[in-house]
Amino acid sequence: MTWNVYLSGEIHSNWRDEIYKRTKKLGLEINFFAPVENHSNSDDCGSVILGKEKLNFWHDNKGAKLNAIRTRKYIEISDIVVVLFGEKYKQWNAAFDAGYASALGKSLIIIHSEEHQHALKEIDASALAVVDDLKKVVEIFQYVINGKLNN
């Protein structure tokens, strides 16, 4: 069986690549989905496709709606949703993704540092796993897919 996993969260680092490489090395059968990782494309898609806006609110609104088409679809077809809350940026959209996935009954894995524990306590409470390390995410995949533990 192939699992579907949506990787939500910050788009300014290569954290997804690390997960891809580690799961491939283990031979795990996973289809990964993610948001558009080109930041300017993600921000500007609405105005480029639907027309420019004078006010930033409408510029952002159009882009958010187009991005939501992709995000909703991928979360809906995923077996597991992984949400990374990085250190540098406030990922309000990632918090929304976690809430949406939770409302759909998706298995949630949340990644964040200890520093963000209090701010993310409600999201953590809805998750099936909360980790501080990408390696632990891959170990969870290995366990739930193959029943194997790294001892």
What do these coordinates show?
This protein is an alpha/beta fold. The chain has a domain at 3-37 and 78-146: 3-Layer(aba) Sandwich (Rossmann fold). Helices cover 51% and strands 16% of the residues. It has helices at residues 15-26, 39-50, 56-77, 92-103, 121-126, 134-146; strands spanning 3-9, 30-33, 80-84, 107-111, 129-131. Strands 2-1-3-4-5 form a five-stranded parallel sheet, with helices on both faces. Strand 3, helix 4 and strand 4 (107-111) form a beta-alpha-beta unit. Helix 2 (39-50) crosses helix 3 (56-77). The radius of gyration is 16 Å and the shape is globular. The chain starts with a strand and ends in a 5-residue tail after the last helix.
Summarize the structure.
The protein has 151 residues and is an alpha/beta fold. The chain contains six helices and five strands; from the N terminus they run βαβααβαβαβα. The protein has a five-stranded parallel beta sheet with strand order 2-1-3-4-5, sandwiched between helices.
List keywords for this structure.
alpha/beta, Rossmann fold, five-stranded parallel sheet, 151 residues, 16% strand, single chain
Total number of helical segments? 6
What kind of sheet is the major sheet?
5 strands, parallel
The level of helicity is 40-55%
Question: What CATH architecture of the domain at 3-37 and 78-146 would you give?
Answer: 3-Layer(aba) Sandwich
Total number of β-strand segments? 5
CATH topology of the domain at 3-37 and 78-146: Rossmann fold
Amount of beta strand: 15-25%
Adjacency order of strands in the biggest sheet: 2-1-3-4-5
Spatial shape: globular
Radius of gyration from the CA trace? Answer: 16 Å
Unreliable residue stretches:
none
CATH class designation of the domain at 3-37 and 78-146: Alpha Beta
State the order of secondary-structure elements, H for helix, E for strand: EHEHHEHEHEH
Mean pLDDT across all residues, rounded? Answer: 94
Distance between the termini: 25 Å
**By helix and strand content, what is the structural category?**
alpha/beta
